[in-house]
Structure formats: C-alpha cells, structure tokens
C-alpha cells in the first residue's frame, strides 16, 4: 500500500501528537466509506507508525442546514454498511446519531483527550470547513484533514479556473502525475493492528452509540429526532447500494451514455451523484472500474493538452463523455469552492453576467411565482412542473431538465438574486446530491458561471444563455416524462 500523497494532507492545527493516547481517531465526516478512502488510509498509516488501534467516529448531527428524514435515512443506510464492515475487520466503529440540537456538543473534544492524533476529511463546501476549523482550534492534539474528493488533489490547482476549457487543459497537463497515486482499494485489508483494549466507556455513556433500530429500519425510527419530517426518504443509501448501481451502469448503460444521457425518457445516466456526494462511493473507484471496462492502459492518454472534451483518454465515446462529467465538470466546482468563500453568492458570478442581469433586472416578466408555487409545481408549464415534482418525489431531476428548471426560475422570479435564492433553497432541501460543489456549479451556471455571453440579447436574460420548454420538447421526448410526474389528483 503506497503512502498517502503529501499534497492531499493538510495540518488543521499545529498541535503535537500524543504518543500516550489510546487510539488513532478517524473523524469520518464526508468520505463515509471503508474503500478507496485516503483519509482512512492516512489513519492506518498513523496506527501502524504508533502501533495503536483505530477508532472511527461517524457522527450525524440533527441541526445541519436542511436536515430532513430524506438525508438522514440515506446517511444512516451508509452507517449500517460501515458498522458491518468495520466489525468484520475488528476495527472499533462509533456511530453516533444526535437526538436533538447540541446533544453531541463536547463529544469530539472528549474523544480527543484519549486519542494520539485526529484524522478527518477535507471538503471545501457547505458547513464542513468551518466545523473542522473550529474543532481543530479546540483540541489539544494534532489534527489532519485529508483530501479524498477527486482525481486531482485540491491543492494541485493553485489558481481559480473560470471555464471548463481552461480547467480541462490544466487537467490534461497535470492529472497524469496523480493517476498513479490512487487510494488503497481496502486500506484495512491484511493489516495487523492491536485491538482497542480500553474503549472510552465514559464517552459512550454520555453519548450512546446509535442503536441497531435507527441504523437498520425505515423512517419510523426517525420520528423522535429533531429534524425536518416533511421531506421523506426516497431511495436507499450506503456504499453497498452505490457499488451495485455503479456495476449496473457499467454493464447496462455506459455504452448508451453519450447518445442518450440527455433524453429524459431514457435510463442512460449513472444516477451515482447522491452516493458520490455523501461519500458512499469514491470517484477513484468509479474511474478504476470504468477504465477496466474499457480495457484502458495508461499509454492511451493523448500527449497533447488540447482541452478537448473528446479523445484525450483514449477510450470509447461514451466513456469519454462520462469522464468529462465525472472529473472535469465535477472538480471544476471543487476548484471554485477551494478558492472562493463566496462560491454560492451572486457576487461570485462573472462580471459580464452581473452586468447583463443588472441591465435587464427591471424587464417585464410574463409570469412571477412565489417560492411556494415553485416548490409545489404550480406554474403554467407542465414540463417545468414535472421536473420540480421529480425533485420532490425522488430527490433528483434528470440532468438535462435540471438546466431548464433553473432557467425558468430565473425567468419567472422578481429578480436574479431572488432566483438564485429559490434555486438554492429548492435544490438543497430536496436534492440528494445538493449542498455540494457540483450542485452549486449547476445552479450558478444558470446565471452565467463557466459560460459566455449569448446572442441575441433577450428580455430578462440579457446575454445569459436562454432555454425554453418548447425548444426542449422539440429536442427530446418528454411526453411520458410529463405524464409520469404529473401532479397527483386529489380524490
């Protein structure tokens, strides 16, 4: 097993290790999996170096923004998978589910008093950076954050990229150096670590381990938690389910991806984004399996860094298209979140987009809807309503229609700032892959991020790229899609 690359390790504080501690603490916050995980691999390195056991803490708070049964259940499915895996490998796993706001306060500090060093996950988005910063400042031992986000280490790109083309060219020049530095498939496989002889019983008593009932059963077990109960669970989460979906995609849908992925009535997309977002499956594992399917070897890489979407990897058309989404577009969003704290703010838009939207801000709008009307799919447009109803019912919108969904919110809101607020609210409340760098890329793209000025200049949109339901229906079949996601009739 190769060492974790230094470029993926960041000291979250400048404390010393405690060689007399009882264990190495892995605080699992984002990469909630046992496979292909640089953070877990780094924890193993510390454990082997200090000859100490490992304690994995996976905590689930109840007061994160937009906390709901939908997201809780998805995360709990993953915790159930992790419990089974870690128990089978004789690793102490501590699943904690907070019953009410602030009930978990003090847990991590108490554990740190018995630990040698803390390893956690490096994620540049949502509340995670501030949470890690706060904890790192209040513990008395060394804390490291480890980047297992994507194929390119976050620190490998030392500047902000404003277009997919420029970022793709950078990837073509620099990513090959990192393709040989993959995380271990199973960091815990065939390692010999001492057992945890002195579990922190006083900590367990104050903050009880999550029960089998809440980890393994359905939404009924969530009723007593202080979270939102109006957004219900929709699909099963967890590393095991994520891996099954990946295998199904590679077997049945990858070959159709390039030609069919933008067709709402076709089942040609991977549907992996929720599992990637919640850390249940690694981009490295997906890349590895895609390339195995393609029979890929490293020498197929093009030597020319052209920035082209096609031909660089030396694999089939569909695999090339999928990898461009998985790596270029996804990690472009991570680059934005890494370099700009205001990645989700209107002010982060390109100057040309802000200027044209300001110029057209007072344009007459044929329709204006409230956030409640949008949320309930109560517009005049059946296709838009269907996309919103799919989001509410299933926690996702078909990739192509997600663009139309955002463009119409821009068109039917009082002004662009309110449109942005509505998009973020609806996406983060309902989407399983929301609250993520990649989802903020999609939302801000609606308003011009990573795009260019378009002609002709239109009312409301100005030079922002325009989309309409009528043109969309001409390009792709949507009749059955609209029927499938029609509002439920009240008897």
UniProtKB/TrEMBL annotation:
<protein>
    <recommendedName>
        <fullName>Deoxyribodipyrimidine photo-lyase</fullName>
        <ecNumber>4.1.99.3</ecNumber>
    </recommendedName>
</protein>
<dbReference type="InterPro" id="IPR036155">
    <property type="entry name" value="Crypto/Photolyase_N_sf"/>
</dbReference>
<keyword id="KW-0227">DNA damage</keyword>
<dbReference type="InterPro" id="IPR036134">
    <property type="entry name" value="Crypto/Photolyase_FAD-like_sf"/>
</dbReference>
<dbReference type="InterPro" id="IPR006050">
    <property type="entry name" value="DNA_photolyase_N"/>
</dbReference>
<keyword id="KW-0238">DNA-binding</keyword>
<comment type="similarity">
    <text>Belongs to the DNA photolyase class-2 family.</text>
</comment>
<dbReference type="GO" id="GO:0000719">
    <property type="term" value="P:photoreactive repair"/>
</dbReference>
<dbReference type="InterPro" id="IPR014729">
    <property type="entry name" value="Rossmann-like_a/b/a_fold"/>
</dbReference>
<dbReference type="GO" id="GO:0003677">
    <property type="term" value="F:DNA binding"/>
</dbReference>
<keyword id="KW-0274">FAD</keyword>
<feature type="domain" description="Photolyase/cryptochrome alpha/beta">
    <location>
        <begin position="22"/>
        <end position="154"/>
    </location>
</feature>
<keyword id="KW-0285">Flavoprotein</keyword>
<keyword id="KW-0456">Lyase</keyword>
<dbReference type="InterPro" id="IPR052219">
    <property type="entry name" value="Photolyase_Class-2"/>
</dbReference>
<dbReference type="GO" id="GO:0003904">
    <property type="term" value="F:deoxyribodipyrimidine photo-lyase activity"/>
</dbReference>
<keyword id="KW-0234">DNA repair</keyword>
